[in-house]
Every structure is written in structure tokens, then in C-alpha cells.
Target: Cytochrome P450
Amino acid sequence: MQVLFYIKLSAVINENESFVVPHFLPYFGHLFQYMRDPLKFLLSCRQRYGSTFTLKVMGQRTTFVMDPRNWNAIIKNSNLSFPGTELATRAFGITPDALGHDEIDVQMRKDYPKGLQNDSLKELIAHFVQNIREEMIKDKQELKNTIKTCGLLDLCHLMIFVPSIRTIYGEIDVHSYEKSFEKFNSNIQLLFINVPSFIKSTFFQKTLNARDYLIQQLSNIEHVQNQSRMTKMRTDLMKMYPQYFSSSDIGGNHLAFLWASVGNTIPAAFWTLFHILRDCRALEQLQEEVRENLPVLKLDENIEFDENSWTVEKLAKCVLLESAVNETLRMYGAPMMLRTCSSNTQIQTYDGKTLSIRKNDRISLFPAASHYDERLFHEPFIYKFDRFLNNTIINNLELDRQKVPIAYMPFGTGKTMCPGKYFAKNEIKICLALIFQQIEYKFIDETTPKTRADRVGFGVAPPSKDVQIQYWYQ
Ligand code: HEM
Model:
């Protein structure tokens, strides 16, 4: 009788659990299907099993909630938290002792708007424009009126990597970081996976060496000139707690921030340029907008840089550019927002049902699910540069006549939402505007690259192959 009662009870609990997608491999579970093409796999699971389903990867159960009407309930649930400690330890080598201290996390999040928004944003933009101008002057001098053949992603890297890092970290020798960053960044997705450490050290040694080099370089930068307010605040905060942060933990934290700041911005600039430069109608309109709002930035080292030439206010007037960047982030900004469940939890869904999540299970919100939902975005697989003109669409997203305020979230949402989003968008706008003003180009490669499947879920996925162009200065 007792047994019967137990079986019945567990059936009731399971009824509210989401469907586990069948798999045949013990332990690895859905890993290989998922890794082949995560976006395609997840969208096909939604089509076959509905908007909530569970996958198992390396023994970890993860429930994917693909309907944005349920996202708010998940974000607000206090049993579900961002597994920051685990991810930061695996990917950035920060020791667990230096993570998960509420008083420090709260202070760091309070510092983000102080260091990245309002007046600090104005300062960051002025320095970024100055730094990008310097890099372009160097590049122009090296070219000496000749034509350069390179990848479009390489050009975006040239325009963003050094200028962005100098803007945030000051006068460090960024060029000495480049090779290691490339090695680390190209395989960082492997470090996020939960595998035993001996596997990591056997198979990912080069990536780990590159990471350790970067950590070491960034572990002692407090005396560097011209650092941003953000970096100073972060370093000061960590130095206040020597009992938690070793110098290597400080380096790991700076590396995490550095990766967050350039790891997504460079591929986002690439995809925006890739679509705009090949669309004459879009290009003409955007060039006109830049001509109207931004004065020509002279690439001549003898002319002093005027820091009021390109300001946040002038960039804000470039609404078509803003829309083009937002459209890129709709199509390519596909973060996987993970939450870990601290105890058995019941979530009320928008349609009055209950979703049960087991202790230690993960929940994943996948914004690409709504970014590619044709009920929210007409012809979602087509890049439309003016789709977000004046942002009206973001405020009016509806499903079944019900407003869905968080269906567009390339920068995440809730307390871990990207604090660098205004800086990131302005960096991309500046990069595009300067290319319109200063550079002539020709595509050698006419094919459209795919996104790197293994990077879907980690922010903006880069192309699987760079697109060759030729460019020269006007
Ligand atoms: C196109 C460029 C960018 C994209 C798409 C992007 C996207 C994101 C996303 C989705 C998250 C939230 C992750 C989550 O909640 O699970 C995030 C967090 C973060 N981003 Fe960005 N980001 C970009 C650029 C930047 C820049 C330029 C900076 C700094 C200058 C930055 C700094 C951060 C930081 C510090 C966090 C962690 C916030 C926290 O945990 O409280 N990001 N970003």
C-alpha cells in the first residue's frame, strides 16, 4: 500500500516535470547532437516536444524554457541562481574562495553603472574614438596608399581589440596579449564544459597556457596610466579583500571582464558590417546618416584629436546604425542564460500550469528561441537593418495579444544583465561609421559564412570562416 502510494505520488510530481528528450548515450547524453549545431538542435526540439523540454549532457539535466512568457517567473525565482562561481572557476581560473561573497558581488554590480554608464560612458567613448583613430593612422601609414587583403573579422579585430582594451585598461602593451587572447578566445567554450581536470589538462593545454599567461599579465596592472574608472574601481575593490583575492584571482577577474568586453563586440561588428556592406540600399542610408551627424575624423597625426568630435549625443542621433546593431544582436546574439536550482522548485507558468524543477537541475533561457520566432519577428531569418528603427518593436512584442517585455534580450536580463551594453553598441557604431568615412573596400569572397556552431550560447558567435576582402584608405 505504501509502495503504491509512493508510485502514485512520484507520478504526480513527474507530471509537472518537463519532457526528457530521448537519448542513447549514457553520461554524454545529448552532447554530440547539441554540439553539432546547437541552434538547429534546440529549435527542432521545440518543434517536436513543445516549448519546455529537458536535455542531459555529461550527467547534468538542463530544462530549456523557450517561451519568453515564462522567463520572468524564472528570473525572479530565488531558488534559481546564476552558476557564476562554477563558470568563472572553470573558464577564468579564479579560485572558488574568491567567488560568491555577497558583499563583494553587490558592490561590483553597484560599480558597473558608475564605471560604464552616464559620465563614465562619455569618457569611455572619447578615449575609444581617440584610440581607434590612432590604430587607423598606424594602419594607414603601414599601407602607404596600397591595397590590403585580409578577412573582415580581422579588420574588426584591428579596429576594436587594441582600442577597446586601451580604453578600459590604460597604457598596457596590448599587442603582447594578442596571440594568447586569440588562442584562449577560440577555445574558451571548451573550458566552460564540466569535464574532469585531467581531461582538460591533457586536451586543452594550449588554451590553458594562453589563459595563464593572460592572467599573469593582468594580475598586476594597478599602476598602469590612463586606466578607466571601471578598472580602478574593480582593482580597488579586490585589493580591499586580500583574504579572498590572490594576485592570480585579480588577474582572472580582469581576464573575465576583458573577455566579456571584446569577445562579443568584435563578432557583432563583423556581422553588422557583413550585412551592411553588401546591401547598397542600407549602405547608402547609413552613410547619409553618418554624414549628417558625425564630422569627418581626420586620420592625420599632425592634427590634434578633438574629443568632442564624436560624442555620445552625436552617436545617439545615428538611429539607423543603432537599429542595424540591434538587428545583428537579434540574429547572432544568442547567450545561454543558465540558472541552477538550489532546491526542488515549482514554477507557475504563464498559462496557469506548474513546472517542477529538481534540486541541482539547470534551467536555460535561450533568447534565440524568441529572436527567431516568426510570431514576434516577421521573417526572422532575414537581416533587416531598419527593423528596430526607434526601438518601437522592442516595446511592442506580443504573443497571443499579450505583451512580452523580455522577448528580446541579447544582453541578458535581471541582475546579471550586461552592464557594458551601451559602450558595446557605441563601439560598433563608431567602427562602422569610421569604415564608411575612411575606407574603400571590395569583397573577394561572395559566400555567406555560417556561425561557429560550437560558440552558439556563448554570446555572439563568430563566423566559421572569415570573409576575405580588400580595403584601402580614401
Ligand atoms: C555586443 C557586445 C556584448 C554582448 C552581446 C554582451 C552580452 C552579455 C550577456 C548576455 C551578459 C549576461 C550573461 C548572463 O546573465 O548570463 C553579459 C554580462 C556581462 N557583460 Fe556583456 N556583452 C557585450 C559587451 C560587453 C562590454 C563591452 C562590456 C564591458 C565593457 C561587458 C561587460 C559585461 C560584464 C561585466 C558582464 C557580467 C555582469 C554580471 O555578472 O553582473 N559586456 N554580457
Observations:
- The chain has 20 helices and 13 strands.
- The first helix runs from residue 2 to 15.
- The domain at 6-473 is CATH 1.10.630.10 (Cytochrome p450).
